[in-house]
Amino acid sequence: MPQMTDRCDTANNVPHFQPGQDMASPRFAFGRVLVLAASSAGIIAAAIVLALSWPAPADLFMARFSDSTSTSVCLLVLGIAILIAWRAGNQAPNIAVALSLTFIYGSVVVTLLFDRLHVMPLIRQIVQLLLFFLSSALFIRSTQLFPRKLTAADIASSPTIWGKSPPLRQAATFLLRPEAAWIISATACAVIIFAADVRVFAPIMMAITATGILYFYITLRGPDVEARHKVLWFFEAALAAAIITIFAGAIDLALPASVPPDVRAVIQQVFSIASGLTMVICFAAAVFYAGAISPALIVHKTLVFGATVALLLFLFGVAEIYIAHLLIHALRVNDSFVSAVLGAIFGLAFHPLKHRIEHFLKRFAPKDKAGVEPAAVANPGVEYG
């Protein structure tokens, strides 16, 4: 059996996680307070958006419904960020993840709130650009710090092409510098400003997401079993977001010009809702089911399965509304008939899908939840910025 020291598994030369220390650094304390304050403000803003969205005019119903689902996703993720900072905010990796979630989803809420309040375009653009700058940089840094800080040695020993190819290894190692994330984010903002074309935003977002996926993947392919377990769900969330975005863009480009704008909007909103629900499921599974953040946040599997049922019911309800709206206008059929048919289809599909999702979740549950340690870095002095 490999011998365990205070710092590593001596047989496999794998860094061993430490329980961590209290936040002696004022920087950690500031990050924790920032997450708690910003996420709380985001939740309040989301509630205001929902209150201002309804009742909605008939011609804006679908748009407001889509905004409301996006706002609901933001509410859930911001709530998860608060719990991370409150219950497990004494570790740099946890704070990095919480800050990333706070600014990514908080920026969505701010955008929707500005839209409801009819804020001046100049002020809206400045605030949105600032939030994009912060969220992009914090996302990249969180992928480099969670569940422990990646080092040049981790890149060099990686079995991936990024560890085997010298040019790629040097590039990945250079981007590990804390200032590199901020440089990437600043460059992206500059391109958005000077290009003045909304079409550049999607490629930039994909490039930033790909950078984060790269570092999650390096950790996932590393020799540290505990680190792989902790990073799995976050890697899947980032990968799913990229795949859904690519599919949505490809389908939009493939649709013929004769397709009505309303149909295009419905298809894109379905992808948006699917992406949001996927993010919530992955984040919730990581935090509350797999113990990626702290064992104190793990909940009983009955609650996890109950939440799965609730999410599936919500998904079926959303899909039925969108599909029914599309079929009624496309086929000119009675709305009661369409609702009855879709209800029967979803009713028959619900139980098998629920069973498969629960079986999937069991595969990633920790075998001994009591033995799962909080996410920590090998060096307690690691900073997240």
Alpha carbon gyration radius: 22 Å
Name the average pLDDT. 81
Question: Judging from the principal axes of the Cα atoms, what is the shape?
Answer: globular
Q: Specify the helix fraction band.
A: over 70%
Biggest sheet descriptor: 2 strands, antiparallel
Number of helices: 13
Distance between the termini: 38 Å
Structural class: mainly alpha
Return residue spans where pLDDT drops below 50 for at least 5 consecutive residues: 1-24, 367-381
Spatial strand sequence of the major β-sheet? 1-2
Bin the strand percentage: under 5%
Query: Count the strands?
Result: 2
Q: From N to C, what is the helix and strand string? A: EEHHHHHHHHHHHHH
Supply database-style keywords.
385 residues, mainly alpha, two-stranded antiparallel sheet, 73% helix, 1% strand, globular, disordered N terminus
Describe the 3D structure:
The protein has a two-stranded antiparallel sheet with strand order 1-2. The longest helix has 31 residues, at 301-331. Among the domains are: 25-146; 258-370, no CATH class. With 385 residues, the protein is mainly α. It is built from 13 helices and 2 strands.
How would you summarize the topology of this molecule?
Elements: E1 8-9, E2 14-15, H1 26-53, H2 61-88, H3 92-117, H4 121-145, H5 152-156, H6 161-164, H7 166-174, H8 178-195, H9 201-220, H10 225-254, H11 261-289, H12 301-331, H13 335-363
Antiparallel strand pairs: 1-2
